[in-house]
């Protein structure tokens, strides 16, 4: 009889243990499943877009980016211009990105960039300097994007400077802003640009051209030179050399093949 009572007690304990373990397992699995819901399926009702803080006493420099933007033509001038905030006694630059989406842009090399402003719907700040880096489809489908081309036209009306790197010049040409100035582009695409825009004056054998408020560059790693030139134009040689030194770049404008038409 005693043995039967002991067995019943043991059996009760086992059943209780199994019940608790089963429920604990279900709770843990449930929590795991919640934590692993894909981000795009989670509620974003409480989220809001955070815009960059822009110092009103600085130049506003907008980088026009899109899927297929090439890293170097974007990051080279971005680095140069962003570093102006660490130089005293100059009107530094607020740098930010603009795109036609709130979603991340994927560069040609696979870097994902979350744009600061969506030019389709956001209230944009004043743009003093527009930078158009090269992108994968600047020679074809991007030129059919009338909304993007019209955005460039609108910014051009008030911008102090409009710059391009590599095939970004094709976008400026399509927008018509290079109609009365001298320009250049990626060396192997110069002939194609001449065929596409036969009325334009496009030069070879230079790394950048400055004509009026337009600066067009050959792109690639030489995008650094075009950006440094603009800084030397705005701030002087000493500041430009300081910016270059901070990025371990030997900067001497006289040694860079370039063309200045009028400024």
Overall description:
The chain is an alpha/beta fold. It has two domains: 40 residues; 204 residues, Class I glutamine amidotransferase (GATase) domain (Rossmann fold), CATH 3.40.50. 37% of the residues lie in helices and 17% in strands. The strands form three sheets. An eight-stranded mixed sheet has the order 5-2-1-6-7-11-10-12, with helices on both faces. Helix 3 links the parallel strand 6 and strand 7. Helix 3 packs across helix 4 and helix 6 runs antiparallel to helix 7. The longest helix is centred in the first third of the chain and has 34 residues. The radius of gyration is 28 Å and the shape is globular. The protein starts with a helix and ends with a strand.
Task: Supply database-style keywords.
263 residues; alpha/beta; Rossmann fold; two-stranded antiparallel ribbon; 7 helices; 37% helix; globular
What is the name of the CATH class of the largest domain? Alpha Beta
Helix-strand category: alpha/beta
Strand order within the widest beta sheet: 5-2-1-6-7-11-10-12
**What is the CATH topology classification name of the largest domain?**
Rossmann fold
When the domains are counted, the total is 2
Architecture (CATH level 2) name of the largest domain: 3-Layer(aba) Sandwich
The strand count comes to 12
Strand content: 15-25%
User: What's the CATH H-level homologous superfamily of the largest domain?
Assistant: Class I glutamine amidotransferase (GATase) domain
Q: In percent, how helical is the residue content?
A: 25-40%
**Overall form:** globular
Sketch the major β-sheet.
Answer: 8 strands, mixed
Order of helices and strands: HEHEEEEEHEHEHEEEHHE
- The parts where pLDDT drops under 50 for at least 5 residues are 1-46
Q: Tell me the span between the first and last alpha carbons.
A: 109 Å
């Amino acid at each position: 009889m005693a043995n039967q009572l002991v067995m019943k007690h043991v059996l009760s304990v086992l059943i209780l243990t199994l019940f608790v373990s089963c429920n604990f397992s279900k709770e843990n699995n449930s929590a795991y499943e919640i934590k692993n819901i894909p981000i795009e399926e989670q509620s974003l009702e409480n989220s809001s877009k955070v815009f960059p803080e822009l110092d009103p006493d600085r130049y506003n420099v907008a980088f026009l980016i899109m899927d297929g933007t090439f890293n170097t033509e974007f990051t080279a001038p971005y680095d140069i211009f962003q570093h102006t905030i660490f130089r005293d006694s100059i009107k530094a630059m607020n740098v930010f990105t603009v795109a036609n989406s709130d979603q991340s842009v994927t560069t040609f090399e696979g870097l994902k960039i979350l744009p600061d402003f969506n030019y389709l719907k956001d209230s944009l700040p004043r743009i003093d300097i527009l930078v158009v880096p090269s992108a994968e489809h600047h020679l074809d489908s991007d030129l059919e994007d009338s909304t993007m081309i019209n955005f460039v036209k609108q910014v051009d009306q008030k911008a102090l400077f409009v710059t391009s790197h590599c095939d970004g010049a094709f976008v400026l040409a399509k927008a018509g802003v290079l109609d009365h100035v001298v320009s250049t582009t990626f060396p192997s695409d110069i002939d194609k640009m001449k065929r596409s825009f036969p009325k334009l004056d496009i030069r070879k054998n230079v790394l950048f051209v400055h004509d009026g408020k337009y600066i067009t560059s050959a792109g690639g790693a030489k995008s650094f030179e075009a950006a440094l030139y603009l800084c030397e134009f705005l701030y002087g040689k000493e500041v430009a050399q300081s910016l270059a030194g901070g990025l371990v770049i030997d900067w001497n404008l006289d040694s860079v093949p370039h063309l200045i038409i009028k400024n």
